[in-house]
Specification:
alpha+beta; about 130 residues
Length: about 130
Amino acid sequence: MIDPQAARLLAEWYQLGAQALSQLAAKMPGDRPSAAVLWPEHFDVGITAGAINYGASPGDDHIADPYLYVGPHDGPPPGDPGVLERPVRAARTFRQIGTMAEAAAFFRDGWARALAAAAAILIRRTS
């Protein structure tokens, strides 16, 4: 049996995530963001832009509550296991994100951290 309250919570979570992702995508056209997709393997709604994934998950084995996430598409680059792992990979649960503005700010912060981490990698590689 489907719990109507849980179904409503997930519907609202996906709507909040989709709106925040749409707002983020509009601010980053140079990163060529993908269209928002409901991914069947994890049942999360997300986009990829500039090799970074942004999305809203219903929860999983790692985080039981619905959460927003930002993380590198392919994991940390070879030879730099900590650069993208700690400063960029991030998650906030629905208990921490209550509004579209908070969700959008979380995604924008993740985008800024991703840009900073990419710049740090380039600086190290050219030094």
